[in-house]
Amino acid sequence: MADKGTDEVAADITDGAAKKGKSKLSTPPSRALPMRTWLVVLTVMISAFGLVGSSVAVHVLMREVLFSRVDEDLAMGIDTWARSVQLNRGSSVTPMPSEFCQITISPTGSIRTVNDQGSPPDFHQITELGTPVTIESTANSLEERDWRAIAIQGDDGTTTIVARSLEPEQQLMAGLGAIQAIIAAIVLILMGLASYYFVRRAMAPLREVESTALAIAEGDLDRRVPEWSRETEVGQLSYVLNKMLGELQDSLEEAQSKEEQMRRFVGDASHELRTPLTSLRGYTELYRQGATDDVDFVLTKIDDESKRMKLLVEDLLALTRAEGTRLSMKPVDLLELTLSVASSARAAFPGRAIEVDNSTAAIPVVSGDADRLHQVLLNLVVNGLKHGGEEATVHIELRYDEDNVIVVVADDGEGMSPEAAQHIFERFYRADTSRSRGSGGSGLGLAITKTLVEQHGGTISVVSEVGVGSVFTIVLPRLKEAELPSQADDE
């Protein structure tokens, strides 16, 4: 808890006595001043410092000028009329100007003062001969007055002091100070008004940024800050904010898309799992209620549904691994890999035609995970053989251009409609919308394939026509000869 001042403690005690124990007073939170107010205040303060500095400089300079003139008058008086006054000691008429005072001190100690104006200067404050100094009037003077005085000593030992009252100069300096104060006040007022106007005008873009930010916070995600010249700070700020807002909107839209995909994924997975689970429960209840005595039939159905669930779970795990597992990237010979895929597919589908055509002039090498690329190609080949029909054949062609290796997997099977081809790589999508077909496909195979291809920096596309077949095209970045590891590196 912050320490309280004496006045606050006293107020708390008084208030507690009046309200029977309520000793703590609530204080409203302090409000920070807006930046434009601070700018105006700082501008006025800097101007005030400048005006004070200039006023002090003028005051000091003016004082030096006036004092130098007084000193010149004193020096001239010493050389002219002071001598006449000293010679005409008995005369009541002297050539001395009225604002001057002369004090003569004889060697015997006698003091003669002429025209002291009721406040004679205190000559005891003079410590050096021949140098003008500022002294005060004596203690028993009618009024306090400052004098400028100079003292000289003659050959006979007589000391002559000539002093001049500084009252006219002090009045002049006081008037000058008053004028400077009035001018400074007027200038500060005008400076404050002008700075308020210009600061408010200069900060208008920031208010526009503020209103844009509030609109975005209220849900208007398409709102953007007006573009100003990037040569200015506000222009740079608007550029950075617009760029940041664009990236945030893209990220938000991507997150919303991912969330929607995840919801759809969870819904589809739940639906896919619910179907075999419902079948399992149905056959179990059928046997339990005595509706059938054929145990083998019930167990066969339960085994089929459990296999279908197992296949779906395995495909879900495969999709998760494909999205989250780091690949072991090495140079992969796609010709050798394609021949291996064709051999595996022939073993799984004996009697089916699977051809490999290499149209490359050199070894088609890419950087990738050999096991994952084998999975990709085998998925496409098996997909063509299973869903293309019993008479469908698969043709694999390898070719490359300057930057990419292109793998084409084509079948001459049943094909699919253009509408189905647009969604074939989506999770749980099947051109056959039946959820319980005997093929047992989960609709995840091509989604896994697309994910793996994209992880290798490639793309996959499909062109299909009903009754003609489907053509899948994979494009992967090609490794140039300069990028291939040397034989010494392999050893």
UniProtKB/TrEMBL annotation:
**Does the keyword Membrane feature in the UniProt annotation?**
yes
Q: Which residues form a coiled coil?
A: none
Instruction: Check the record and name the CDD domains matching this protein.
Output: HAMP (cd06225), HATPase (cd00075), HisKA (cd00082)
Q: What EC number(s) are associated with this protein in UniProt? A: 2.7.13.3
Membrane-spanning intervals of the chain: 38-61, 174-199
Which parts of the sequence belong to the HAMP domain? 200-253
* Span of domain Histidine kinase: 268-480
Q: Where in the cell is it found?
A: Cell membrane
Q: Keywords of this protein's UniProt record, alphabetized?
A: Kinase, Membrane, Phosphoprotein, Transferase, Transmembrane, Transmembrane helix, Two-component regulatory system
Q: Where is the signal peptide?
A: none
* Catalytic reactions of this protein: ATP + protein L-histidine = ADP + protein N-phospho-L-histidine
The keyword Aminoacyl-tRNA synthetase appears for this protein: no
MF terms (GO), sorted A to Z: kinase activity
Q: What is this protein called?
A: histidine kinase
